[in-house]
Design goal:
This protein has 423 residues and is of the alpha/beta class. The chain has two domains: 269 residues, TIM Barrel; 105 residues, Immunoglobulin-like (Sandwich). The protein contains eleven helices and 20 strands. The strands form five sheets. The protein has a seven-stranded parallel sheet with strand order 1-9-8-7-6-5-2. A six-stranded antiparallel sheet has the order 10-14-15-20-17-18. The protein has a three-stranded antiparallel sheet with strand order 11-16-19, with no helix packed on it. Helix 7 links the parallel strand 6 and strand 7. Helix 5 runs parallel beside helix 6, helix 8 runs parallel beside helix 9 and helix 9 crosses helix 10. It is globular and about 70 Å long.
């Protein structure tokens, strides 16, 4: 009798735990419009620099147009095409000073001995005028602002003052207080990036492995620094990923895997947008179309029927699920070098995963940070029949019954899983 009661109680506990596992999270984005791009709506922001066509971007899954290089007039011309294509705009703001657009060349000249003092009121006025002109012409089609010149250096006081003056000027004329960003180079560490969080709303940084030349464990270190700096200032991290270096002939087949890994690694660390550098048709880059199609394939599930972008933006991170490597390297090492010498060595678990609860269900997204195949066991599922689906295409992969599920990763592999109670 007692044994039967205990068995029943144990079964109830298992079922209750299973019910808790599958319980949906409150939809943190419920009040945002489904047809607007984050932060104005629920659509995940994905854009690329210097695209030849906003319509092409839209048709292949990109959700934001811009930035483009050039003067204010060039940005206005591009924005008109983007608006016609129905895409919101990442507005690259240029500032005019003494008849020219402010450039890094100009900023360098201000640090020379005997340089003329900068008229900060004139800088502010130009920034206000160009931002106001953009708002007058394109209104709420502008999603966020992008300050130029890029890569203003935190150790140069005039450059940081310029950034502050321009950011303040934009905010003074923008009634919607849209986010302000600026591109940062990939070699900046967390402490360098933190200099910008008091001024900027979005911290964006490039991660360029140069096709196959840099081992992609670097992406882990880079993502860690970028998102760590953004979080320390309560800011949003935006990943700038690579599309401009021609791979070796024997590497061309790896482009789809590289692109998927390069996108999903920063997303798992918490980045809330992707900018691709660059969509331009450039000389000596024969792999352009291969990369473009690979990006299109990777980004479509973020905003297509699957809406995995909403899971990332509005889901709740849980700690129930983890991976145990059963075949292949369980750890990977990144060595940060300076002048050819190892300055710092970091060891990471080969598999990086994110266990997510969302209003639409329960998910686990994972990347493998090695160029070798890996077999692993997903652990922590309820000990009852659980249907495991490929979250990208909806295909049923199998049923877990004992709380585990075997998962294979290819080189630089990405696995995106969704779970339901087995019927």
């Amino acid at each position: 009798m007692k044994k039967g009661i205990l068995t029943t109680l144990l079964l109830c506990c298992i079922l209750l735990n299973g019910a808790d596992f599958f319980a949906p999270a409150p939809d943190a984005g419920a009040n945002l419009p489904a047809d607007k791009v984050y932060p104005a709506g629920r659509i995940f922001p994905i854009s690329g620099y210097s695209s030849p066509s906003a319509t092409l971007m839209r048709d292949f899954g990109f959700t934001v147009a811009g930035p483009v290089y050039g003067k204010h007039e060039a940005m206005c011309k591009w924005a008109a095409k983007a608006k016609e294509a129905g895409l919101p705009i990442l507005w690259q703001l240029t500032v005019n000073y003494e008849g020219k657009a402010v450039s890094m060349e100009f900023m360098n000249s201000t640090n020379k001995k005997g340089a003329k003092p900068i008229d900060w009121d004139a800088i502010a006025q130009s920034a206000k005028e160009n931002a106001q002109d953009a708002i007058n012409k394109f209104g709420d089609s502008i999603l966020w602002w992008y300050v130029t010149p890029e890569e203003l250096r935190h150790w140069r006081s005039k450059e940081m003052k310029y950034l502050q003056v321009v950011a303040d000027a934009i905010r003074s004329v923008d009634p919607l207080k849209r986010p302000i960003s600026m591109y940062q180079p990939g070699h900046y560490g967390k402490s360098s990036l933190e200099h910008y969080t008091p001024i900027l709303d979005y911290i964006s940084q490039g991660c360029y492995p140069h096709a196959g030349k840099t081992y992609r464990t670097w992406n882990r270190y880079w993502s860690e620094n970028l998102t760590g700096a953004a979080k320390s200032g309560n800011r949003t991290a935006i990943a700038v990923t690579e599309m401009y270096v021609e791979p070796q002939l024997e590497e061309l087949g790896m482009v789809p895997a590289w692109v998927k890994y390069d996108v999903w690694t920063p997303l798992l660390y918490g980045c809330k947008g992707i900018l691709v550098f660059s969509l331009a048709n450039r000389a000596n880059f024969e792999a352009h179309d291969r990369y473009f199609l690979a990006y299109s394939d990777v980004i479509k599930p973020l905003n297509g029927k699957q809406k995995l972008g909403e899971v990332l933006l509005f889901g709740v991170e849980e700690k129930d699920l983890s991976y145990k490597v059963t075949e292949g390297p369980s750890e990977v090492v990144y060595e940060k070098k300076s002048a050819g010498k190892v300055e710092k060595s970091m060891t990471y678990s080969t598999i990086l995963s994110k266990d997510m609860r969302h209003a639409s269900g329960r998910y686990c997204f994972a990347v493998s940070s090695t160029d070798k195949p890996v077999k692993a066991l997903l652990q922590g599922l309820p000990k009852q029949p659980v249907s495991v689906y490929d979250a990208e295409n909806g295909k049923l992969l199998g049923t877990a019954t004992d709380g585990t599920f075997p998962v294979d990763f290819g080189p630089w592999g990405v696995r995106l899983l969704r779970f339901e109670k087995a019927k």
